[in-house]
Amino acid sequence: MIKLGNKENCCGCTACVNICSHSAISMQPDQLGFWYPVINKEKCVQCGLCQKVCAFNKDYFKELNLQKPDVYAVRHKEMKEIEESRSGAMFVAISDSVLDKGGVVYGVGYMGHFRVSHKRASTKEERDEFRGSKYVQSDLNGIFVQVKDDLKRGLHVLFSGTPCQTSGLYSYLSLLRISMERLCIVDIICHGVPAPNVWRDYLAYVEQKQKMEVSAVNFRDKSKLGWASHQEAFTFKERVVYASTYARIFCQSIMFRHSCGICHFTNLQRPSDITIGDFWGWERVDAHFNADNKGVSLVLVNTQKGRLFFDETKKWIDYIETDPQHCMQLNLQSPTAIHPRRDDFERDYINHGFLYVGRKYGDIGWKYKANLYILVIKRWTKSMLYK
Asked: What region holds the 4Fe-4S ferredoxin-type domain (predicted)?
């Protein structure tokens, strides 16, 4: 039987829930919206599968990994795909290769009113919802079982997710002895997963402020400020509204899941066939490759099977092979340092709600604007002194 103890020891991947044949485990949300397993002791038969399947530890499976990954800077050949994606549209290329074989793609989209969730796509139109970053931990309810069933039917499958999710899926399928020959596992370079309930309440705040319902969301809209910007865009009937409150709180690492602070996957031995992310530092590889600031993907090919899948995408992409030393961003070296006031943030949110934490930790209200004004004046004064 799983004994959770400290919350930081659970990443919420749902592998334990899906492996339990007695339905003795359910996932229940805490007050921030993070899901954790709860054991029904009356149904539990002490088989130990839930403990065996847990892959959130330093001993996750990596025996098939290359000694070091093949590293590429990648951009899709079609500018439209780059403009509609977060970085260089590598996800589009690799998912197209799976869909063209009659396969299916699992990625992160929306359920209901922009509730971030993993979904299944069998067409490119359905897959397009998965493009772009979603800075919320996704709901994986029932997804591992769907992947298993698709593989048993002989379908080609692409599963994309955070490394803790991909590690959990691999462990689940391995324990069930499901053939993964037709499965391509893709993980993302993850900074940390924010709280679902904070996102839900922020969206409600934006809609209340605008007095209308949001029809589309972009967590990082690069159409206005470019690929390196980090600003939310909310589409309403007649206009697009830009904001940065959620981004400011996100960048403080103050609303992440506890497990993000001890992530076991922040290295080059990734729990996937292919890793994708933003290629920060692409200039060291080729100063002209992303000169238009539209975005470039970092791609790590981690396994021999990953090499086969990468080869299948080459007709859609421009790519430059490079070396790991040119791509060693923070979350390929160590976990994100969780903000020391993370627990204060959670208590404030539970006791006072989103608007309170938006004012205290974000940019809502006059205090933030006053402090920003003071900072600008100080910088201006300092610059005048040195003239």
From this structure: 1-30, 35-64
- Angle at which helices 354-361 and 342-352 pack, to 10 degrees? 140
Q: Looking at the structure, tell me whether residues 174 and 274 fall in a common domain.
A: yes
- Residue 1: per-residue pLDDT: 62
Residues 36 and 77 in one domain: no
- Tell me the residue type at 82: I
Give the domain range for residue 101. 65-194+256-332
Of the candidates 6, 56, 25, 316, the one whose C-alpha atom is nearest the C-alpha of residue 168 is: 56
Is 301 found in the same domain as 358?
A: no
Q: d(Cα 36, Cα 28) in Å, to the nearest integer? A: 5
Query: Is there a domain that residue 273 lies in?
Result: yes
CATH number, domain with residue 49? 3.30.70.20
Packing angle between helix 304-313 and helix 90-99, nearest 10 degrees?
90
Residue 15 corresponds to which tokens in the numbers above?
A: 């592998």
Residues of the chain with pLDDT under 50: 368, 372-373, 384
Q: Please write down the HEC assignment for all residues of the chain.
A: CCCCCCHHHCCCCCHHHHHCCCCCEEEEECCCCCEEEEECCCCCCCCCHHHHHCCCCCCCCCCCEEEEEEEEEEEECCHHHHHHCCCCCHHHHHHHHHHCCCCEEEEEEEECCCEEEEEEECCHHHHHHHCCCCCCCCECCCHHHHHHHHHHCCCCEEEEECHHHHHHHHHHHHHCCCCCCCEEEEEECCCCCECHHHHHHHHHHHHHHHCCCCCEEECCCHHHHCCCCCCEEEECCCCEEEECHHHHHHHCCCCECHHHHHCCCCCCCCCCCEEEEECCCHHHCCCCCCCCCCCCEEEEEEEHHHHHHHHHHHHHEEEEEECHHHCCCHHHCCCCCCCCCHHHHHHHHHHHCHHHHHHHHCCCCHHHHHHHHHHHHHHHHHHHHCC
* Token pair belonging to 258: 């506890």
Q: Which tokens in the block code for residue 1? A: 């039987």
User: Could you give the CA distance from residue 301 to residue 186 in angstroms, rounded to a whole number?
Assistant: 10
- Count structural domains, the chain: 3
Per-residue model confidence (pLDDT) at position 380: 52
Q: Give the tokens for residue 276.
A: 């994708």
